[in-house]
């Protein structure tokens, strides 16, 4: 043990005094002292174990500064999504357009009319900002919006089927994203699940024979994240509508994603349109605001007025209510939906989904032409490669979108490059397919290019800044 070295460790007060002023403004003495103490302890231990044989006061000071900087660094930050998964649940789901963020910034940085009616000068209702718009766009009679679709499901079940039975096909008892399971939500909402049919086949007669006086709801769940293929049969919504109405029981469908623009011309079919479900006579629909709808985290509940009015009176609504930020984003996103072609151009999720393979290939060419020379200086090769992108967000699990990207070649191992890419100031998320490190450009925009090229250089140089 080196006692001389231990004695050389500066005093707390000296370090506090020498710390640059901006730290003293940002942190109070409690946090400063705690951090200094932590670093001093680390030094003491390293000296005692012989790991440190000599040091300067400035070494200690720089450790303290790194530690303090780390405290106010955020792990929640922008990334570059090279996975080609447009609605990536782990990467923030739907991207919000810059135009919308610019438009709502004054509302968020000032007071606003969240619950104020400027006509009467009295209290307003937050849901009214969007109700007419979503009804005009989908054809629903009434609408409500809550914190997310999981809350929407809870609220519908709790309002219309508390202490009553809810009939659901066995093939639709889904789990979404690990934490949302239809049977569990059912239990939490105090309604009783009645499973009918089998995993692969459910017939109308299965529903019919299960209806009795304590049936509160017929429920359909869009099996958004998986598909049962082969020998299957499920009951069409239109048949269920008839059965429900004959028995005066509401029919509710949890749509999950909430697609409003018909994407079949772009090769994306098989996802029901919200307005078609309304047209088919389904009484209540719920769907997420940040999946295919392309807005902020929220859950829409739309449908027949008599049911929506009941839901609006449920006390749980207060616990599930949407916040002003999400509501503002949803309101502006709805403004983009009055023309499908306008929506497809302006809502980032839809814009990325309708990109043709050729358009993505052009984007890739532009990247390669611009940066090939620069990257080759670091012995990095970038080549165009055909890829398959995905919708994500649990929507359209089998749909693969022909896409295009780059593969990165370098003498370092792919796994090392991949993990270094994630360590860049703007983390870059890549995929390894068939022993190739690939970045899909469906989900990478030209505004990412500068950071992307910097990140690639950073990753091959061992994950440290040049
Ligand atoms: C995604 C999804 C949910 C949950 O929606 P959140 O907005 O994530 O709460 C519920 N049901 C279905 C069918 C879904 O696809």
Describe the structure in your own words.
The chain is an alpha/beta fold and 466 residues long. Helix content is 42%, strand content 19%. It folds into three domains: 2-71, no CATH class; 80-89 and 353-460, Aspartate Aminotransferase, domain 1, CATH 3.90.1150; 98-346, Aspartate Aminotransferase, domain 2, CATH 3.40.640. It has 20 helices and 18 strands. The strands form five sheets. Strands 5-13-12-11-10-6-9 form a seven-stranded mixed sheet, with helices on both faces. It has a five-stranded mixed sheet with strand order 2-14-15-18-17. Strands 1-16 form a two-stranded parallel ribbon. Helix 4 (29-48) packs across helix 5 (57-71), helix 7 runs parallel beside helix 15 and helix 16 (340-346) packs across helix 17. The longest helix has 20 residues, at 29-48. The model has no long low-confidence stretch (mean pLDDT 92).
How many distinct folded domains?
3
- The SS-based structural class is alpha/beta
Query: According to CATH, what is the topology of the largest domain?
Result: Aspartate Aminotransferase, domain 2
Low-confidence stretches: none
Q: Number of DSSP helices?
A: 20
What is the total tally of β strands? 18
Mean pLDDT: 92
From the spread of the alpha carbons, the general shape counts as globular
- CATH homologous superfamily of the largest domain - what is it? Type I PLP-dependent aspartate aminotransferase-like (Major domain)
Largest sheet: 7 strands, mixed
Strands ordered across the widest β-sheet: 5-13-12-11-10-6-9
Q: What small molecules does the structure contain?
A: pyridoxal-5'-phosphate
Give the CA-CA distance, first to last residue.
37 Å
Under CATH at level 1, the class of the largest domain stands as Alpha Beta
Strand content: 15-25%
């Amino acid at each position: 043990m080196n006692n001389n070295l231990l004695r050389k460790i500066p005093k707390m007060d000296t370090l506090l005094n020498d710390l640059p002023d901006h730290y003293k403004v940002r942190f109070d003495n409690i946090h400063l002292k705690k951090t200094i103490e932590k670093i001093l302890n680390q030094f003491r231990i390293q000296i005692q174990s012989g790991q440190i044989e000599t040091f300067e006061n400035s070494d200690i000071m720089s450790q303290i500064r790194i530690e303090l900087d780390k405290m106010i660094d955020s792990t929640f930050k922008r990334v570059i999504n090279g996975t080609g998964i447009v609605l990536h649940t782990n990467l923030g789901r739907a991207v919000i357009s810059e135009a919308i963020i610019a438009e709502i910034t004054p509302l968020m940085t000032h007071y606003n009319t969240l619950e104020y009616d400027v006509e009467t000068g009295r209290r307003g209702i937050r849901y009214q900002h969007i109700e007419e718009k979503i009804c005009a766009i989908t054809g629903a009679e009434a609408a409500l919006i809550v914190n997310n679709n999981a809350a929407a499901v809870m609220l519908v079940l709790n309002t219309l089927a508390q202490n009553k039975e809810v009939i659901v096909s066995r093939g639709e008892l889904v789990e979404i994203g690990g934490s949302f399971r239809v049977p569990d939500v059912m239990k939490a909402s105090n309604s009783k699940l009645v499973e009918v049919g089998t995993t692969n086949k459910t017939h109308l007669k299965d529903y019919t024979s299960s209806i009795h006086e304590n049936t509160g709801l017929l429920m359909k769940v869009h099996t958004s994240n998986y598909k049962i293929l082969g020998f299957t049969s499920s009951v069409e919504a239109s048949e269920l509508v008839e059965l429900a109405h004959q028995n005066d029981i509401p029919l509710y469908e949890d749509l999950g994603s909430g697609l409003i623009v018909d994407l079949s011309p772009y090769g994306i079919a098989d996802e029901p349109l919200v307005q078609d479900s309304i047209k088919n006579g389904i009484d209540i629909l719920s769907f997420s605001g940040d999946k295919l709808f392309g807005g902020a985290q929220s859950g829409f509940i739309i449908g027949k007025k008599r049911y929506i009015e009941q839901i609006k009176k449920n006390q749980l609504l207060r616990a599930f209510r949407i916040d002003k930020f999400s509501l503002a984003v949803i309101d502006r996103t709805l403004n983009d939906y009055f023309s499908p072609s306008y929506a497809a151009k302006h809502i980032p999720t839809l814009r990325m989904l309708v990109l043709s393979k050729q358009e993505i290939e052009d984007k890739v060419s532009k990247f390669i032409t611009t940066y090939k020379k620069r990257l080759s200086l670091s012995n990095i090769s970038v080549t165009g490669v055909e890829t398959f992108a995905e919708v994500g967000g649990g929507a359209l699990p089998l749909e693969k979108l022909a896409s295009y990207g780059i593969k990165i070649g370098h003498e370092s191992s792919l796994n090392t490059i991949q993990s270094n890419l994630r360590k860049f100031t703007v983390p870059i998320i890549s995929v390894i397919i068939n022993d190739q490190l690939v970045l899909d450009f469906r989900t990478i925009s030209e505004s990412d290019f500068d950071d992307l090229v910097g990140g690639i250089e950073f990753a091959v140089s061992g994950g440290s800044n040049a």
